[in-house]
């Protein structure tokens, strides 16, 4: 199996992570997925061959859990390298309510699920990434790192931290490992949820019209961006908005 490249995706059970994992498996890669959603992982295990897919239940914001997962990953890889890491895990709901009502424990939950998780997983993955040539890390940020909606303080802060972590890692880990960030905009994840929560999108005309490309984003769009960054050997420390042009367009109230 040494001739096959391997990608590790956090938050792989649903949505963007599931699409990235599936996309790369379809390209012939071996895939490793980490998630806390046992039901979603069970679906993926049933769909993907065990010799080319390793799905592990893991809370990537917890240091001990990451260490245990990487013990399994190390055994599964043997002496093979990890080619690509995608730090995608986060709390999907960005809304936390008024600032004066936001408990520190809730704030920390958002930060740990996204930013702390990216640190812990990257730290554990670096020795495996350095085994090969052309390794890359794609951190999934958000357009909310640079623009906000009301009451999204913790989510925005975690994604802003991801942006800063990205350029810091790119400078420090190069030339062995390239590190870039992808900032998704409005991505419709309904078709990429586990079966019990799967849904068919029904976007309004004005939803589509907010985007200069004329549609809402799909998780596949993010998977393609990850593939681009991995192949782009002269690109590191960059932050790419994948948002259909939404952040470039002036939007006015009706």
From TrEMBL:
Residues 195-204 have a biased composition (Basic and acidic residues). It holds the Pfam family adh_short_C2. Keywords: Oxidoreductase. InterPro entries: NAD(P)-bd_dom_sf, Sc_DH/Rdtase_CS, SDR_fam. Residues 190-217 are annotated as: Disordered. The keyword Oxidoreductase applies. Signal peptide: none annotated. Belongs to the short-chain dehydrogenases/reductases (SDR) family. This is Oxidoreductase. The lineage of its organism: Bacteria, Pseudomonadati, Pseudomonadota, Alphaproteobacteria, Sphingomonadales.
